[in-house]
Amino acid sequence: MSEPLETWVDAAIGETREALVRNGRAIALRIARASDDGRRARWGELYVARVREVDRRRRGVFLDLGLRDEHGFLPLGEDGRVRRAGKERVPLSEGAGVVVTVTREAARGKNPIVELQETGHDGEAPHRIARHDVDDELVLAKPADAQLRVKLDNTIEDALSRIAPLPGGGVLSIEPTSALVAIDVDAGGRQGTGDPERFALDLNIAAAHEAARQIRLRNLGGLIAIDFVSMHAKSHQKQLEEAVRAAFADDPWSVQFGGLSRFGVFDLARAQLRRPLHEQLRDIDGRLSAETVALMAFRAIEREARAQTGRQIACTVSPDVKAWLDAAEIDWRTELSNRIGMRWTLESAPGPRDRIDARAL
Asked: How far, in Å, CA of 122 to CA of 92, rounded?
């Protein structure tokens, strides 16, 4: 019998953060941002769309979804038609109106992938007709208390780190690139018996299970290569391959397994349904985005306001974070005032982007 699951949810200003948790450890994360409304397509959403272009060279149909930043991509079959969900293939022409479901969010600079549901919606302006607030795994609940918010903060910070510790010692180094996700297994300070082969097997099996958790937690997909510690015994190599498959047994996304090479590298391919966490929260240069830091600042102000009841709270952020706040389309000022009252100020000062100084006056 599998362990019971619980859900951590924080309905914060500008975003809802959710974690699916087993035995006190998060196994899945989802962050839905208010700023994405009208800009980005989310997995599972339903749209009335219009065909912009039928591109047979790229074997796809580009669709206007009514979004500012993204166009949908509907794959074409070999015969130049598209399959309607579970049904026959149908031809599409430019200007045609259709209903589609988002089956993969935009990631790595690629358009969101959609699946055709219905045709014959000519004349309707492209728009979203159903959003997907409730995840297939994560169920919305009431806003988080202070303790739960801290747990979510720590979980997300850990999920953005390049290094993930292994139970019992050792670490994973996780490096997403444009081509693949590379994961390296290192013994670190792990202690073992005098048998090197047994030590390597135990380390690798622990690494397989933690790698599966981290991949799911970070929404990583595409080609993934895990560089395990080398083992010579064929029986141990087989046990490791079985452990990798078992580690991904509960993964809700499609996973295809390669095998363990003679160099100790196991390759697999995982469906990419949602944006990877690092793409959602960081800029292309690897720094936390101005939006991510701005939303962190709101939580810092709320935290300080709870600790210093009735006192004025002053928060200082970097100039680029303040610029994002000034240009933001979400009404964060009203929401912040509704939560803690009109006892806050938010100014900028030179400094690193991730610096947030929230204090009571």
From this structure: 12
Q: Which amino acid is at 145?
A: D
Alpha-helical regions (H) of the chain: 146-160, 196-217, 234-247, 277-281, 290-307, 319-327, 332-340
Q: How far apart are CA 261 and CA 265, in angstroms?
A: 5
Token pair of 105 as six digits: 């969010």
CB atoms within 10 A of CB 89: 14
- Report which of 250, 224, 247, 214 is spatially closest to residue 239, judged by C-alpha positions: 247
Which residues touch 16 (CB under 8 Å, ≥6 apart)? Answer: 9, 10, 31, 32, 140
Separation between Cα atoms, residue 112 and residue 34, nearest integer Å: 18
Q: What is the pTM of this model?
A: 0.89
pLDDT band at 139 (very low <50, low <70, confident <90, very high): very low
Task: Kindly give the residue spans of alpha helices, DSSP state H, lying in 194-352.
Answer: 196-217, 234-247, 277-281, 290-307, 319-327, 332-340
| Digit-coded pLDDT (tens) for 216-240 | 999 999 999 999 999 999 999 999 9
Cβ-Cβ contacts under 8 Å for 140 (sequence gap 6 or more): 9, 11, 16, 18, 133, 134
